[in-house]
Design a protein that fits this description.
Distance between the termini: 108 Å
Structural class: mainly alpha
Largest sheet: none
Order of helices and strands: HHHHHHHHHHHHHHHHHHHHH
Helix content: over 70%
Number of strands: 0
Length: about 425
């Protein structure tokens, strides 16, 4: 039996299991194996030096309470933990009492009662040693801060987070810094506080650099890019995403590569940054197809097609449109297929490939009629006009297209078709 002031690091091993379970449940946090190993190394000396001959309390009742907690049987877990707490108080067994308090705090929080979890975490802190520094205390302080925040106690939440930072700093270990900063970044990010999340993400990225974990550096940089998106700071989002791409290894997870390229694609669209789109768009398409997201790939192909047209790159413009049409057909997106079929027909026409353009316009004509899309119908009729062998047939086809265009009340379209008709009439 121990008193509170003599509780050793080994005494709280049982609590560590519960803390980890609750921590991951609260923050949906998954640390990479490299960081977990480094965290274990950071506290190993403390654990070994303080353990002595004492073993961790073994309690079937504690194990049963943990099973109930993991099974999300929160009221059952609470009832068991309350009995454990009474037993531990009677026996003056502080390590068992700490475990019971941890389960009570975790169960109340996971059951949607964060305010009721606060006193249990506060009691747990009283049972944990303050010196030497220990990771469990950092974890509990973070959880206590989050519970204060959930309960609307902003100042108390900040005090707990500040204390957690102070404890983490005492380790002087980048792995612990990363653990702390990622935890707080996740908490603030989940609550929509992008600026606060960014501050912690940037510090986590710096810690990952010190640990020489390139894919973790890339992860935090891509998370920064997403938070900058929330702030609509597109240049900063693009910069962070490019930083992520340059940091990650060749074997980086697909989702990591996708997140970084997605951020660049979104930022390039918002900034009308054609250079970035041309540089990173093809890589993003490859990732999207690898991940089975054909709809996303089609959207980027469509944007690339417009960029290639703007930069007067006809071959690439045509190739991008062909891919867009094919993907739209496979995805069952008739409106996207129609619009890009018309665009592809005009691209073929500009290249002088009228024999390829004509069947596309005929297909688009039928699709537009089925979809009752008057604008695309007018454009398909005008496209067919250019395939006509003589002036009179072209004029007649364009007059039909102009009649259709007038029905849209789209002045830009009307002016465009009218201009083509005037040119056709002027031809000998």
């Amino acid at each position: 039996m121990n008193d509170t002031n003599n509780l050793t690091a080994n005494d709280i091993n049982a609590t560590n299991v519960v803390v980890g379970q609750q921590f991951n449940s609260t923050f949906n946090l998954s640390l990479p194996q490299e960081v977990q190993r480094l965290l274990q190394s950071a506290v190993a000396a403390q654990m070994a030096g303080a353990a002595g001959e004492k073993g961790v309390t073994q309690s079937p009742a504690l194990e049963s309470a943990m099973v109930a907690l993991n099974a999300k049987q929160f009221e059952r877990a609470i009832a068991m933990a309350e009995r454990l707490s009474s037993q531990a108080a009677t026996e003056k067994n502080n390590d068992l009492l700490a475990s019971a308090e941890m389960i009570l705090g975790a169960a109340h929080n996971l059951a949607g009662r964060p305010g009721e979890s606060v006193p249990h975490f506060e009691r747990l802190l009283e049972l944990l040693p303050t010196d030497p520094p220990n990771l469990t205390r950092v974890q509990v302080l973070i959880m206590l801060g989050s519970m204060h925040g959930e309960a609307g106690h902003a100042e108390a939440a900040q005090r707990s987070f500040d204390q957690a930072r102070e404890q983490a700093a005492r380790f002087n270990e980048p792995a612990v810094d990363l653990f702390f900063e990622q935890s707080l970044a996740s908490w603030y990010g989940d609550r929509g506080d992008a600026r606060a999340a960014l501050a912690h993400l940037e510090r986590a990225e710096a810690a990952a650099k010190r640990l020489e974990l390139p894919d973790q550096v890339a992860f935090f940089a891509s998370q920064c890019a997403m938070q900058y998106q929330n702030l609509k700071d597109w240049p900063a989002s693009s910069t962070a995403a490019k930083r992520a791409l340059s940091a990650m290894t060749e074997n980086a997870p697909l989702i990591l590569r996708s997140n970084a390229l997605s951020a660049i694609a979104i930022a390039s669209g918002a900034l009308n940054d054609t250079d970035a789109l041309l540089e990173f768009g093809p890589r993003y398409i490859a990732i999207a197809i690898e991940g089975g997201n054909l709809e996303l790939a089609a959207g980027v192909y469509q944007r690339l097609a417009m960029a290639y047209l703007e930069r007067q790159m006809p071959a690439r413009h045509i190739a991008a449109l062909e891919q867009t049409v094919e993907l739209a057909r496979r995805l069952g997106q008739p409106d996207v297929e129609l619009m890009n079929t018309v665009s592809l027909g005009y691209a073929y026409g500009r290249a002088g490939w009228l024999t390829l353009a004509e069947p596309l316009f005929e297909r688009a004509l039928l699709m537009a009629q089925l979809q009752q899309n008057t604008k695309q119908l007018a454009l398909a009729q005008a496209g067919l006009a250019f395939a006509k062998p003589n002036r009179d047939e072209r004029v007649a086809a364009l007059e039909l297209a102009l009649t259709t265009a007038n029905a849209t009340h789209d002045q830009a379209l009307i002016d465009q078709v009218s201009g083509w008709l005037t040119q056709a009439k002027a031809q000998a």
